[in-house]
Specification:
With about 130 residues, the chain is an alpha+beta fold. The chain has two helices and six strands; from the N terminus they run H-E-H-E-E-E-E-E. It is globular.
Amino acid sequence: MVTRFVPRVLGALLLCLAVLVAGCSSGDTGGDAPAWARGMATVQADRLPAEARQTLRRIDDGGPFPYWKDGTVFGNFERELPRQKRGYYHEYTVRTPGERDRGARRIVTGSDDEVYYTDDHYASFKAVLR
């Protein structure tokens, strides 16, 4: 009796694990994502933190921006984003509640309307799908 029960439980656990892993994927939408976002983790704009959505609205409106570095050239020195010529990317601060300075969250835009979000000070990025 026990020998029949173990494979069933193991099979059920493996199925649950497979469902969990699929549900926690990087968000890479493969063929559904624009070419610039393929192969990257993605996030829908409406799933960003409220402060990031507010920063996106400011970018769309052309300002005003609360931080002096907003709109400055992002150098991509970490090489987490596709390589482009200097001046292609610009960065904007996403306010972090409780932080006294700029915090770690940013939105980086590309000259061809790409939008990227980082919440770990450029260590990783997600392509923002709008």
